[in-house]
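Re: the 361-residue chain
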Amino acid sequence: MRILFKTSYNDDIRLFPDRWTLAIYAGLLVLSLTLPLLLDEFYIGEVTNVLIWAIAGLGLMLLTGQTGQVSLGHAAFLAIGCYTNTILIEAGLPFILAFPLAGMITGVVGAIIAIPALRLHGIYLAIATIALSILADDIIVLLDPWTGGVSGKFPDAITLFGLEIERWTMPVRFYYLVLAVTVICTLFYRNLLRSPLGRAFAAVRDSEVSASAMGVHIARTKGTAFGLSCMITGWAGALMGYYAGAFNNETFSLVISITLLMMIVIGGLGSIHGAFFGAVVVAFLPQVLSILKGAVLGGGVAIPGLETGVFGMILILFILFEPMGIYGRWLKVRTWFELFPFARKDMFRRQKSYLKTERLR
């Protein structure tokens, strides 16, 4: 078992705890870069889909997993990022400027919406964000001259540093673009957690009363978390538009918001790894079910709602038996092997992280 002795504050906020962890993530990065040499174009497309969902999961994880604010309206911010990026490019801006601006504009819109919304707590905040997700559908239709309304939009191929990037004809180039955005968003998230602002997010999540007593400005911290969360989500939405090839008012529905929330719960709330584990489940579950259905019932049989039902059943099982998600289970297995044969049965008993006065919020 590796034991880390932290002798200073710098040791506690180090980007990588030790060289072994650095080597593991460096190996994962090298594997990601060489993946197009190992897989065919179909599976490269599926891995690209996983990375896009992971970026969206990082956005929601920052708000829900790190700050404790439940949102069921992040599909609206996916739509804002997607449409804003396309409109800016149609206006003549190059992708290298339009893409970052799309995320920033989405973050500003999210921060403005957060001013009234974050006066709510718990289930009331979730209901308010559901209303936002439903309203986004009607707003897209009403803004038909800019959004294309029901007909939708078809984004052009990306031109970046003289290279043309397109999801269908050049999946490898598109994969590397999405991989670069994923690495940047992950490093941004990780460095944010090391900063005083990231620690303020965690304090608000665990106890607003205690955070306020320590000098954390609750409203400002929540608004900042909402803005940064929407910024990352907007970038994921822009990439989703390119991945789909076409989008309209029905593309970013309430189901997407619910799927995002379930994804980070299954992956593991409050951890970067949870966003990636949940994205793998969301991206590959339809393919697995299709293969199993074809093997058992034959390829021509359609079962409406099969994917939604199975995904919901997986969520229920995780809530009942493993609330910490896939990443939490991995940590328990790893720790058990590290401590064997001295591991105790009740060493992973959950502790309450809220005050009695905050249970009903």
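The chain has one domain: 35-349.
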